Amino acid sequence: MLRMKLRNDKLEPGTQPATELIFGEWYPALRADTLARGKSTTALLLGVPLLLGRKNDGSIFAMRDLCPHRGIPLSAGWFDGETVQCRYHGWKFEPCGGQCTEIPSLTQIDTLEPSKIYAGAYPCREVDGYAWVYLPEAGAGRISDETKLPPVPEIPKFSSKFRSAHITADLPCNVDHGIIGLMDPAHGPFVHQAWWWRSSASIHEKTKHFEPVPDGFRMSSHAPSKNSAPYKLLGVYGQDVTTTIDFTLPNRRYEVIRAGEKWFASLTTVTPVTPSSCRIDVMACWNIFYNVPLVPTIASYFGAKFVRQDQETMVQQAEGLRYRPAMMLIDDADKPAKWYFALKQRRLTGKGEHPLQGPVELHWRS
């Protein structure tokens, strides 16, 4: 497992336009290996302050980082591996469910039952090296039956042995701009110019087929772009190489590349940190060149450079977004962006049909 984290400190996120966020979903909060037993840390997810930690038994938890008594952050207090204690009045909470276990100020004549009090706590699962947190809709109440929740997103895997890596980068824009940048098919020859990827001279016309999937759309199985150097390496296996790309709400892009028994799969998410800032996480697994030394190191190095190019472009775009310009989306290259906005509105309002009623063929130069 290799990891890289890219940060941006050039623009204040608060200067960027905000957007409406989708709750009632799983989001990656942080890398799970940052949570040692008996330790806790903080994170911000969809504008919600979180206290995350790992209990002595290895289970992880996510609490709203606010004491229900007087609102002080619970992170200002103590975590002993079993309970979280507020610094202000010493209230104690079981962190996985949020149930209060002790109120030190109570006397024998008090009738208040601490166990009936709950701090905010959210379902938290460790998958693909991330601590995923489920943030319910406002007013949904405490979640008592987690079996009714949707499954935690996971990278598709096609063999028991594989390598993995991940890259994280902060983006100074709202999640909408982060997502349509993620799915934009036309920026590659310009943003990602490099000898190891492609050049502006490699641009040519492409035809791709799309089909609807629940809460998203799929770029149907196809041969990967021949003007990208990494894809050419897969030809050494003498197999037909195919790739399939899915996008599903609220923020997930899955890509699967197959070359016979060899495969590469990734899950890329663009997660709102606040209504005006977001974070991109790329999680990848593969068995391609499994026994070749240094492949994970090399892949992470070039992957980080690739994401850095996107990050730098988003920083530059954010300068213009401060003035809240109108967006111009064209056909066919921007059609996936239009589908995303339609799907998001359908999800937020509960009204409307899926923007794709059947298979669609799109054309663009890239």
Describe the structure.
16% of the residues lie in helices and 33% in strands. It is globular, with a radius of gyration of 23 Å. It has helices at residues 175-183, 188-191, 229-233, 295-321, 335-349; strands at residues 2-6, 25-31, 40-45, 48-54, 60-64, 78-79, 84-85, 92-93, 100-102, 121-122, 124-127, 130-135, 163-171, 205-213, 216-222, 241-248, 252-259, 262-274, 277-286, 360-365. A hairpin with a 6-residue loop joins strand 8 and strand 9. The protein is built from five helices and 20 strands. By secondary structure, the protein is of the alpha+beta class. The strands form four sheets. The chain has a nine-stranded mixed sheet. The protein folds into two domains: 25-135, Rieske Iron-sulfur Protein (3-layer Sandwich); 163-365, Naphthalene 1,2-dioxygenase Alpha Subunit, Chain A, domain 1 (Alpha-Beta Complex), CATH 3.90.380.
Tell me the domain tally. 2
Structural class: alpha+beta
Distance from N terminus to C terminus (CA atoms, Å) equals: 32 Å
The best one-word shape is globular
Mean pLDDT equals 88
Q: Per CATH, which architecture of the largest domain?
A: Alpha-Beta Complex
Indicate the low-confidence ranges by residue numbers: none
SSE sequence, one letter per element: EEEEEEEEEEEEEHHEEHEEEEHHE
Question: Helical proportion?
Answer: 10-25%
Organism: Terriglobus roseus (strain DSM 18391 / NRRL B-41598 / KBS 63)
InterPro entries: Cholesterol_7-desaturase, Rieske_2Fe-2S, Rieske_2Fe-2S_sf
Domain Rieske: 26-133
GO molecular function, one term: 2 iron, 2 sulfur cluster binding
